[in-house]
């Protein structure tokens, strides 16, 4: 039997952000458009969710292109896709009832009708709802999988994390610390660097806006790098590659510095992967979604104990999403980028 439902008319207003045109190079506000869509009544096996928080993530830049990738491109004229935290307002699945708070893949819109099989209930007593999009969500899982499967840091080793105040980087830093590694964080600007020094208490911090890559890494990693957790790419990746120790591991998570490029950049001399017996491996967190509970079982107790810190950069209103996404791709965010779309019933 379907769960309890409420009456939502299919022609009610549903504010949404659509991809108007595909960017060439860096996206601009004119690539997006806000309009009013329909609220689709859920069918059997679906739930209708009111969006509370929307996640913005670097991988979204690739979805703006019409080309092969690990995630399908967004359709032109269609609401952009993204992960959401929301409140169930109507359910056609016995596992969910109106008022349930949950996580799901959704869209840039106020109301999303989604398959119930992809919805995960959230416990508001465990952590703030928005953390399900960052530290306790796929970014946190990304850091966990990247280090557990590829980086495998050991006590005394040196781990360097680029974009260290980002949603993935901040968790990667703290998991590497928990493994007993010496951790070096790279971030842009004194405000971000101060958080890494004062809150995470990293062993060394590099400001990429004012320091030269080679000199900064030589100073911070005098004996070389054992694990490089890559979120940025570009000159810092080249400099880190040249300083990898024998049997070092490079965790290739993202390269946001090149996402707006229209031509591929030249890479490093990969002969050194043989000389130094390096492991360079890329991964996509969606391949490891089944490990979410494994990650949460470790992360939630750390967060509750104050041993897992997080940052969020929250903008208010759905129509702020395009500018916030553009800023994220330019590195202007300070922490996990989240859009507050609707009221949070758990907020004090």
Give the helix/strand layout:
Layout (H helix, E strand, L loop, with lengths): L13 E6 L12 E6 L8 E10 L4 H4 L17 E11 L9 E7 L3 E5 L4 E2 L16 H14 L6 E4 L5 H12 L3 E6 L2 H9 L5 E4 L5 H8 L4 E6 L4 H7 L2 E9 L19 H4 L3 E4 L9 H13 L7 E5 L4 H9 L6 E5 L8
Parallel strand pairs: 8-9, 8-11, 9-10, 11-12, 12-13, 14-15
Antiparallel strand pairs: 1-2, 3-4, 3-6, 3-15, 4-5, 5-7
Helix pairs in contact: 2-3
Written account of the structure:
This protein has 348 residues and is of the alpha/beta class. Helix content is 23%, strand content 26%. The strands form three sheets. Strands 3, 4, 5, 6, 7, 14 and 15 form a seven-stranded mixed sheet that branches. The chain has a six-stranded parallel sheet with strand order 10-9-8-11-12-13, sandwiched between helices. Helix 2 packs across helix 3. The radius of gyration is 21 Å and the shape is globular. The N terminus is likely disordered.
